[in-house]
Write the structure tokens for this entry.
Amino acid sequence: MRQNIEWQELGFKYMQTDCFVRADFKDGKWGALQVSDKPEMQIHIASTCFHYGQACFEGLKAFTQVNGDIRIFRPEQNARRMEKTARRLMMQPVPEELFLEAVNLVVKKNLDYVPPYGTGASLYIRPLLIGSSPYVGVHPSDDYIFLVLCIPVGPYYKNGFYPVKAIVQEGYDRAAPRGVGNVKAAGNYAAGMLGDFEGKEKGYPISLYLDSATHSLIDEFGTSNFLAITKDNKYVTPDSTSILGSITNDSLQTIARDFGMEVEKRHIPVTELSEFTEVGACGTAAVLTPVYSITHGEKIYTFGKECEAGHTLTRLFKQMQGIQYGEIEDKHDWMMKLR
Ligand code: PLP
Ligand code: COI
């Protein structure tokens, strides 16, 4: 039976569900998936994940669709991105099939926590990979733990599809051009916490990071990609070696092309902000969050109305959600059915 949860009231917080799933890489091979109902585990205090940051994660969502099906949005893309991250951090990659099996299993074992259709909520799935061998010299781990947990979630920013105010982070860089900003290393989020926190204290829920080499080009927001709409209705998004390749952004670009829009992936000077009619932050957690203003030092750039998302972002958002909730044909085959 579905849990008695106020689905419409959900934000983005940890909640214990029935179980998580786990597989261990030991003696040079992956073991079988195990299901555990206890959220604690034993791990060596000298594990490389703690000392040297051999830790990475993914984020994806499952939706209850209008016909009652439960489907997961583009999980194979997350599997591939986690593999890329693992290789960059010299970690043992999780085979795509194991990743998909684990994601599928965690949803099946937590069906009571999958939000019903019509609530606007979804099930957030969080795969995690950590190095678990004890090394005190800097050295890649031999053993790894791969686990997947899930939580029912609502909007990441409290008002959902409603404009937010952003600030350009001027005190700190988040990722270097040849660093690990293009993969989902857990440490990237620690690197961004202080800047994001200081921005929030000043009343800006989102921080925008510029490229750390020149501080003149737009990179991305702390936990989402940047996209903008131009006066002639083009979809523009940064090309940078230090940002995460967002699966949401990729999907929105495809939808934009389906709408007949031109998509440009290129360098975006921060001064070009004055040219855009709409700006959005996109990601699994953020979905598509309209940005009303971006403060850069003394300058404030604004886009559209303070209390209403712009026309093009609204259209993109509705199409994306329509596909995710099974109301609109999934012609790109993005929604994986539970096996
Ligand atoms: N950029 C960063 C830094 C993120 O943490 C995320 C979230 O995963 C994204 C972009 C968006 O990526 P995706 O759409 O694949 O969730
Ligand atoms: C996601 O959108 O899945 C993210 O990873 C953002 C997050 C760190 C909450």
